[in-house]
Write a sequence for this structure.
């Protein structure tokens, strides 16, 4: 059977092509991430060569995200996506690596981001109500117009 035909293994379609070269990060940070690559499967919905986390789409389906939430989330693109769904993380991102994540307009209400690495993350217009950022690394993160009501910083 050829790839894509019913009954074939979709993992044969390859893995995400996102690389660190696409991020505008300091050389020291790039060195600390040396050897990193995204190993998630290509997201069939888009026709691109990106996983669901790195595809440039908005309002991504929680079930598709939850199926590949394992590992770090460096450089993810989750604009205008609700990430608080209990089937995704239960809003628990304790210690998660979200460096250079683009979460513009996303919803992370009541999220636990304790000790999370959010360096260079874009959280513009993100709903972070009642989120817990205790010990989170927010260096160079953009929080313009973020809803931080009752958040613990």
């Amino acid at each position: 059977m050829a790839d894509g035909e019913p009954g074939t293994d979709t993992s044969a379609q390859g893995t995400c092509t996102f690389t660190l070269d696409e991020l505008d990060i300091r050389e020291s940070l790039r060195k600390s991430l040396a050897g990193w690559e995204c190993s998630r499967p290509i997201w069939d919905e888009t026709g691109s060569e990106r996983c669901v986390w790195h595809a440039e789409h908005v309002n991504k389906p929680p079930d598709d995200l939850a199926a590949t939430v394992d590992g770090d989330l460096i450089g993810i693109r989750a604009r205008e996506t609700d990430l608080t769904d209990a089937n995704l993380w239960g809003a628990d991102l304790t210690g998660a690596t979200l460096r250079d994540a683009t979460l513009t307009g996303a919803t992370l209400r009541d999220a636990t981001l304790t000790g999370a690495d959010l360096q260079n993350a874009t959280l513009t217009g993100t709903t972070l109500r009642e989120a817990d950022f205790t010990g989170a690394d927010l260096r160079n993160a953009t929080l313009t117009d973020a809803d931080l009501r009752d958040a613990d910083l």
In short: The mean pLDDT is 83.
